[in-house]
Amino acid sequence: MAANYDHYTYLNTHPQDSPEDESFNPSSIPEQSKAYDETRANRGGSTYYPDVAEPSYVEPHGDHPSDASLVRNANKYQDLEYSDPYNAARAKPLAEKASPFTQILGGSDANRTLQQRIDMKKRGIGRQRYPFVVWILTAAMVATFIYELVANDKAQGTPVSFKPVVNYMLGPSSTTLINVGARFPPCMKFVADVPPTTEIGCLNNTANPATEICTIEDICGFGGFHGKDPNQWFRFITPIFLHAGFVHIILNMLAQLSVSAQVEREMGSGGFFITYFAAGIFGNVLGANFALVGRPSIGASGAIFGTVAVTWVDLFAHWRYHYRPVRKLIFMTIELIIGVAVGYIPLVDNFAHLGGFVMALFVGTVFYPVISVSKRHRIIMMTARILALPVAVILFVVLTRNFYTSDPYAACQGCRYLSCFPTKSNDYCKGTGCRYM
């Protein structure tokens, strides 16, 4: 032992006399191992490998095994561990092929595996982190509501109207809402029962019966009709941004910043934008056809109901990935019933709710990123998408044409009751409804 120790000490103090093992050739170290050592050195680390014994380059003495064999083994360990470093791109599982809709809308599903998408679905993680469209829409609606309050203040001297009729939503008068863009069929087409020359209270009227009289053309605003039939078609779109009062906008924005925002995260902004406005516009198309022709309607409720419909598409398409789906279905049904009940409040239209819901079932089926784990499920979803798109287009075309070319009430006398609860005060939902504004 002492002899060995002295020999080792001598070699350390006289390195030039140390015999070099012919089997050890520094140039034979793999380049990847050298790169690893250089990386460790640049990070302030050591090139010492704790799992590999440090070799000694001394001659064998006595019964001790040759240190040369240790050197060979060390080189083998280096080759095994560092000659083929971990390649993240190569080790990543193949992703499920992205659908054409995903590619068009810029979704990131193409970079994720099927299992990753399933895990994200269970955890409630969608395509994107922030609901940019919802934020922009909410800001625009709040700004528009402030404009409504200012317009009513100029007309009546107060932002909230209490005369001639109390607005229980705590907002502008119905005539002010018509003037800023509410859905109101007499401003959109010629209505025999409510022609442009019909006289009603002006924006500044606070008496009942009215003392300040204006024509429908004056109330519609936007430059009037110039002797032609009314054709303010943009009233299919503008009501989405308008709200009847503080109560109305607070409820809608709470729903939009929660339910609608989550739907946008899951769908992506492109598909969400299309679904949101398709639902909102179609809800106004349906309401313009069948609601009381002389009652204005406003609100983003139809578009928000559309986002609720997308959650139904999600529930049935991903039934197995939802926690307690039956209980969730029950709660969603109750929420839908409550939403329909709210649609009977004046200035809020149930047709906008129901129309937005129905349209979004079709459009949402087309654009919602559904996870298909079997060939059968994939075929079902592809068939549903192929059928949903033409049905949505047909509904838009038929009902828009019906609004401009025929009398919807002749085809469906009882449809008005879906948005008007018959009472003595509204003459049991008969007539045009103009005198109840």
Automatic annotation (TrEMBL):
The keyword Mitochondrion does not apply. One of its GO terms (biological process) is proteolysis. It holds the Pfam family Rhomboid. Residues 231-368 form the Peptidase S54 rhomboid domain. Its main location: membrane. GO terms for molecular function: serine-type endopeptidase activity. Residues 1-69 are annotated as: Disordered. It comes from the Eukaryota. Belongs to the peptidase S54 family. Serine protease involved in intramembrane proteolysis. This is Rhomboid-type serine protease. It comes from Mycena pura.
